[in-house]
Structures
1.
Amino acid sequence: MGVVIRTAGDDDRERIVRLLDEAFQDDPVSGWVFPGREYRRTTHHRLMAAFTDVVLADGRIDITEDGSACALWLSVPADGPGDDDTHGEDGADDDGFARIRQAVDPGNERVELIGRLTAGIHPSDRAHEYLWMIGVVPGRQGEGLGTGLIGSVLDRCDREGRAAYLEASSERSRVLYERLGFAAGEPLALPDGPRMWPMWREPRTGPEAGVAE
C-alpha cells in the first residue's frame, strides 16, 4: 500500500510542530542545540515552530494523511541561499538568525549558530529543491513513510531535470539518503558536537529514474 500524501496548510501548523518536536527529540543535532533531555523537552518545540512557519509561508510541507510524517521543502533559486539570511527564503536580512534566536531561546547561541553554519555550506550556484527537514513520529519509523514523502518530490525533480539538496544530521539518515541517490559532501563538524553531511542529488534520467519504495 502506498503512502497517502497531501500538502499541509495553516490549519496543520500545530500538528506539524508536535510531529517534528517528537521526531527530533533524540536527533544528534537537536541534542547539540538543546543539550539535556529536560531542557530539550521544554524548549525544542519553539525552534520546530519557527521552521514550520518559514516553510508554510515560503515553501511547501507534505504530510501523510494520518499525520505520522511530514517533509518541509523549499525551492531555492540559483542565486541563493547565502549566509546572510535564514536559508535565504524568508526575506530575512543579516539579523534573521538572531531574530529566530530571540524568538526561540535568547540565551542559547547555538540556535543562531546552527542556522549560520548550515547556510554557509548551502550550494548557491544551481536552482534546486531543498529538503529542510523530514520527520516521522517515533513508533512509525522504518515503515517507509519518509521514503514515500521524499520520493514524490524526487520523481518530480527527475521529470523536470531539477537537483535536490539536504543536510543529513546522523550517520543513519546519511545512509538512507545515499540509497535515494544523494551524494555526501565534506561533513560540517559542529563545535564540540556532531557532524552534518551536505548531500546533493542530480536528477535521474532513463531507466534508473525513480525512487524505490
2.
Amino acid sequence: MSTVEVMAEATVDASAEQVFEVLTDWERHAEWMPFTRAQGGHEVGASLEGWTGVGPLGFLDTMVITEWRPGRRVAVRHTGRLVQGDAWFEMGPIPGGGSSIIWAERLDLPLGPLGKAGWVVAGPLFRRFMKIGLHRLARLVAG
C-alpha cells in the first residue's frame, strides 16, 4: 500500500479558539469545504462521518477522533473502505493578531499501483480543494 502526504495552510483574522470552534462544528462543514458535509462527536474516541460528492454520487468517509485539544488541534483516523490514514488540523496565534491553520493528511492509497497512478491526477486536485476549504473557513470565521 502506498502512503501519500498532503498539506495546506492559511491565515485567519480570528483567534485559534474561534477557528477551532467553527472547524469542529461538523454540521457547518459544508459551509466551507466544497462538496462535503459532516456530522459527529467532539472528543477522543468519538466517530465522525463525512459525505463527499454531489447528490447521490460520492463516498462516505468514516473517522474516529484521535486527538482533541480545544483551540489548538484536532486529529482523526480515517477508517472507511475508500479513505484510510490520518488527518489533523492545527491552529495557533500569529504575531500581530490572528492565527494560522494547517490541514494535513497522510493517506494510504487504495488499489495498489493503480491508486498511486491515480494520485498523480487526484493529488493536486485534492490539495486545491484543501486550500479552497481553508480560505473559505478563514472568511467564515473572520465574518
3.
Amino acid sequence: MNHIDKKKEQTIKWNNRSDQTVLYLLGILLVSVIIMSILDEYFLSVRNLFNILNQQSTLGIATLGVVMVMIAGCMDLTIGNVLASTGAVAAILLNAGVDEIWVILATCAVGFIAGTINGVIVVKTRIDSFIATLGLSTVYQGVALIIPGGQNIYLQGKFGDFGTFRVGGIVPLPVIYFFVLATIVYLVMRFTKFGRKLYTIGGNPEAAYLAGINLDLNRIMAYAISGLLAGFTSLIVISRIGQSQPAMGVSYPLEAIAATVIGGVSLSGGKGTIPGMVLGVILFGLIRNSLNMLRVPSFYQYVTLGAVIIIAVALSKIGSNKKQ
C-alpha cells in the first residue's frame, strides 16, 4: 500500500470519527437545552435562541478561516487584531464618504492581504505557526492602534443595517451570513481538490509532498481566506457597536481555537469538519448565555469558560495521542 492509499484509508477513519463528534455535540446541545429550559422558562424563547446565534455569528465567521488553517496543520492567532485593523480601515473609509460596497470590498481585500502575509511568513521562514502568528498578532495590534491614533472611530450612524438588520423582524442578518459562509466553506472542504489537499497536508505532510501537492501554496491560501473572513467579520462588529475600537477583537483567537477544538478539530491538523465547528461555536455561546441567564457572576463565568477550554484541549490531545 503506497502513501496515497494509506492517506485515503486514514481520511475515511478520521471522517467517521468527525461524524461521531458531530453526533456527540448534537446530543450535548440537546441535553443542555432541555436542562436550561427547565431552569429558566425564557431560555427556549425564539428571541433568546436567535440572540445566542447572533452573538456567536461573528466568532463563527472568523473561526471558519481558523478551521481551514488548523486542518492544514497550522495555527492562526492573528484574527483578533486583523479584525481590529481592518475595522479601523473600514471606519475611516465610511467616514470619508466612500460607498458602502467599496468599503466592504476594500476591507475584505485588506484582510486577504494580511492573511497572505501571515501565510508567506509562516511557510517561508519555517517558524512554528503558533510563535509566528503570535508575533504577527502583536504587529497587527500596533497597526490597529496606529491607524486611528489609538482612538475609537465613531461611524456617526452609518453602516448600521449591515450588522443589525433582522429579516422579517426576527432573524438577524449576521446569522444568515454565518450559515451561508459555513455552507460555502463546508462545500469547499468536502468536495473540492483544495479542501482535500488541506486535509492531506495537515494529516500527513510527507504523503502530501509525495503526491505532488504544493504545501506552501495551499497553506498560504488557507491563511489568506482566514484574513479575508476576519476582515468581513470586522464589518459586522463595527456596524453593531457603531464604532471601530483598537481592542475589539482581543478575545477572538482564544475563543476561535476553543470552539474548533470543542467541535472536534485536531490541534495537530488533518482532522475536523465544518459542521462540528459550527456546533462548537453554538455550544460555546449556549454555555455563556446559560451562565448569564442563571445570573452567575462574571468572575465565575471566566473560570467556567476557561475550564471548558482546558477540558476540550485535553480531550483533543488525548485523542491525538491515541491516533498516533
4.
Amino acid sequence: MRIRTNDTVRVIAGEDRGATGKVLRVVLKDHKVVVEGVNRVYKHVQRSQRNPQGGRLSKEMPIAASNVQLICERCGKAARMGTRYLPNGSKERYCKQCGASNGQVAPPKARYAKP
C-alpha cells in the first residue's frame, strides 16, 4: 500500500467525498485507513470510573484505502502515486502528474542500483 501514516489524502468515494485530512492509522490487514475527521460515528459509552459522564463519543472509523487518493506535496493535487528505483537502488514514491518525489519507501539495495 502506498499510503502511510501522516500523509495528506482526499476522499474520492463515499459519504465524505471531497474531504481532506491526515492519515492517523493504516490497517494493513484489512487494506483500510483512518483519516482525521472522516467517517465519524458515535460510540455510546456507559458510565464508568474512566468516563464518569458517559454519553456519546465521536470517533473516526476506517475506510477502504481505495477510496482515498494521496495529495502531492509539490503540486498540491490529489494524484496517483507510483514507485520507482533511484540510481542508488533505493525505492521512492512519486507523483504521476508532476513527477515529484514523495519520500523514500525502501533503503538502497545493491541489485537495483544502476552502474
